[in-house]
Each structure stands twice: as C-alpha cells, then as structure tokens.
Amino acid sequence: MIRAGREAIDRAEVGALHGLTVSQAARRKPWADPGHPPPINRPGGRKGPLWDLAQVRAYVRGDPVPPLPTVDDPADLLDASEAASLAGIKPASWVRYAGIPGALPEVAREVYGQPHWRRDSVQHWLPTRPGSGAGGGRPLRNGLTVEQVDEQAAELMARVADEGRSMGVRELARALGVAPNTATSILRRVTEKQNTQQRRERLEHQSE
Fold first, then answer.
1. Where is this region: Disordered (predicted)?
2. Residues 121, 142: contact at Cβ < 8 Å?
3. Judging by DSSP bridges, how do beta strands 109-111 and 77-78 pair with one another?
4. How far apart are CA 28 and CA 23, in angstroms?
5. Comparing C-alpha atoms, which of 42, 134, 27, 21 is closest to residue 84?
6. Is 140 in contact with 153 (CB distance < 8 Å)?
7. Tens digit of pLDDT for each residue in 193-205?
8. Mean pLDDT of the chain
9. N or C: which terminus of the chain has fewer CB atoms within 10 Å of its end residue's CB?
10. Do the Cβ atoms of 28 and 20 come closer than 8 Å?
11. Cβ neighbour number for residue 5 with a 10 Å cutoff
C-alpha cells in the first residue's frame, strides 16, 4: 500500500539511491541489508516489491527511518491484492473484473507497471460491484456477503499468522466491522474450512 502523500520506488530506484547501477543492485541487493526499510507491498508473481521513498532516503543518509502512517486515508493507493482484500473478494476475482470494461473503479495511478486504486474509490464501488445482489448471498451489516466476509477474514488471519500470532474475536470484529458474536461465527467457520482443507491435502499427499 502506498500511503496518501507518499512516493514509492522500485528496485532500480533503491539501487540508484545507494549509488548502484541496475546490474550492481541486482548483485548487491542493498534492500536486504539489516535495518533496511522493508517493502510497502507484498510482492508476488509478476508484482515486484516497492519501497517508500522517504524511508529509503533516510536509511541511505544514516538518519532515523521515519515510520509510515498507520491510519487509513481515503487517498491511500491500493494494489490489486490490497483492493481485493478491502472489497472482501479474492485477488483472482479482482483481476477477472479488471478484464471487464467498467467493472472496477478507475485506476488512480500506475506505479512501475502496477495499477493502484484509491481507497475511497474502492469503498464507493462496493455497493455496485459485480455479483452484489442476486446470487451474492445475504449481505451482512457491513455490506458484504457471508462468502466475501469469510474470504476477507481468512486473509486477515493469514496476515496475523505471518506475524507469529493468532487473531482474536474482538480484533476480527473490529477489522470486519461486525459484532463480536458474528465474528465468533466467522472465526469458527473459517477455521473449520481451513482444517478441512488441511486434512484433504494430507490425505492427497499420503495417497501419492
């Protein structure tokens, strides 16, 4: 995510700030140095990592690295996976909608070949998103269907697990904008789905 008012740079720009050419940076990998600011996105597939310009500049100068804003802003720029998470759908669904003219909000900015959407554009798009209504399931009070909430909860739980901890009911309720008792049901439902999937994968592995 590119926080409102911040600038993002890619590997080549990080290398340039370190005084390296593209080929030198590819070999040297200065972004992997201890204490170097981490990427501001979650790279994967064809999506390369991006860094906050101000943070990298401070690190190169030897100054304290300024923290990123922690409060969501309507002007935050979200990549496809982050926009999908906010919308409560799978990234693959977001990418599929991108191939349908007018199905997604307008791209706010292309950042090193990666389309980004404003947070408020995604939020305004939610009520008119494809599949909202007939066939989408009964919406919850936060405007999402049960399936979409489960997908969003699973992604949130995975992120927290990456941090080495588990997500509690109150934290999940706040993140999803639902009541604690609803969050309890969501947590139980998602956990059961994950356990079922893990058992299926173990059985498939044993049968190989």
1. 25-48
2. no
3. unpaired
4. 9
5. 42
6. no
7. 888 877 877 777 7
8. 84
9. C
10. yes
11. 10
**Taking the C-alpha atoms of 91, 178, 102 and 76 in order, what is their torsion angle to the nearest 10 degrees?**
-70
Return the number of other C-beta atoms located less than 10 Å from residue 82's C-beta: 21
CB 106 within 8 A of CB 40: no
* Whole-prediction pTM: 0.62
Q: How does pLDDT run across 40-53, given as a tens digit for each residue?
A: 998 765 678 999 99
CA neighbours closer than 13 Å in the CB half-sphere of residue 178 = 24
Q: What one-character-per-residue DSSP string does the chain give?
A: -B-TT--EE-HHHHHHHTT--HHHHHHH-GGGSTTPPPPSS--BTTB---EEHHHHHHHHHTPPPPPPP-S--TT-EE-HHHHHHHHTS-HHHHHHHHTSTTSSPPP-EEETTEEEEEHHHHHHHGGGSTTSSTTS--B-TTS-BHHHHHHHHHHHHHHHHHTTS---HHHHHHHHT--HHHHHHHHHHHHHHHHHHHHHHHHHHHH-
Close Cβ partners of 74 (under 8 Å, ≥ 6 residues apart): 4, 118, 119, 120, 123
pLDDT in tens, 83-93: 988 888 888 87
